[in-house]
């Protein structure tokens, strides 16, 4: 446990971080793998490791590296996934994107607007790319609130 920013609380808190792999279909979803993230300071401290029961063979891995390992295990187990999603922590990691491509998985990973993305031989900010697209390139999708859970969005009724 250590102090770090957590999006759940929206501030810096004492947190314990785990990385989860969830498999989702139209029928539902289930967590199929998980890894505990250990900060570099924990992995480098033999006394803390011993007190917490962390085995000697556990090395420091970033959250995206943990995700890549879980995705690889899922692919080896022939989980019939076609794509993966992740927030900005995962989108900022080129090794994870490369692993997803090696596994043949499509992906949607958030990135910060200050990043540069390759487009037509140039590196551009994604917000600048989006702003330069003409109106006809966009498709507006509307969502409505779920009647029992206002935080949950559901697709509009079909015509």
Descriptive account of the structure:
The protein has 159 residues and is of the alpha+beta class. It has one domain (2-114). The protein has helices at residues 40-43, 46-52, 63-76, 88-91, 94-102, 126-132, and strands at residues 2-6, 11-15, 17-25, 28-37, 83-86, 106-109, 117-119, 122-124, 144-145, 153-154. The strands form 5 sheets. A two-stranded antiparallel sheet has the order 1-2. It has a two-stranded antiparallel ribbon with strand order 3-4. A hairpin with a 2-residue loop joins strand 7 (117-119) and strand 8. Helix 3 (63-76) packs parallel to helix 5.
Helices and strands in order, then pairings?
Elements: E1 2-6, E2 11-15, E3 17-25, E4 28-37, H1 40-43, H2 46-52, H3 63-76, E5 83-86, H4 88-91, H5 94-102, E6 106-109, E7 117-119, E8 122-124, H6 126-132, E9 144-145, E10 153-154
Parallel strand pairs: 5-6
Antiparallel strand pairs: 1-2, 3-4, 7-8, 9-10
């Amino acid at each position: 446990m250590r102090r770090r920013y957590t999006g759940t609380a929206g501030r810096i808190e004492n947190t314990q971080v785990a990385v989860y792999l969830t498999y989702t279909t139209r029928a539902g979803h289930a967590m199929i793998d998980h890894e505990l993230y250990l900060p570099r300071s924990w992995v480098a401290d033999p006394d803390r490791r011993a007190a917490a029961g962390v085995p000697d063979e556990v090395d420091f891995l970033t959250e995206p590296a943990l995700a890549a390992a879980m995705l690889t295990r899922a692919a080896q187990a022939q989980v019939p996934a076609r794509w993966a999603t992740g927030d900005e922590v995962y989108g900022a990691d080129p090794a994870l994107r490369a692993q997803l491509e090696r596994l043949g998985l499509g992906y949607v990973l958030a990135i910060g607007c200050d990043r540069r993305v390759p487009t037509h031989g140039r590196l551009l900010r994604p917000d600048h790319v989006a702003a330069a697209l003409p109106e006809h390139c966009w498709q507006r999708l509307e969502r409505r609130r779920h009647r029992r859970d206002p935080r949950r969005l559901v697709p509009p009724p079909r015509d």
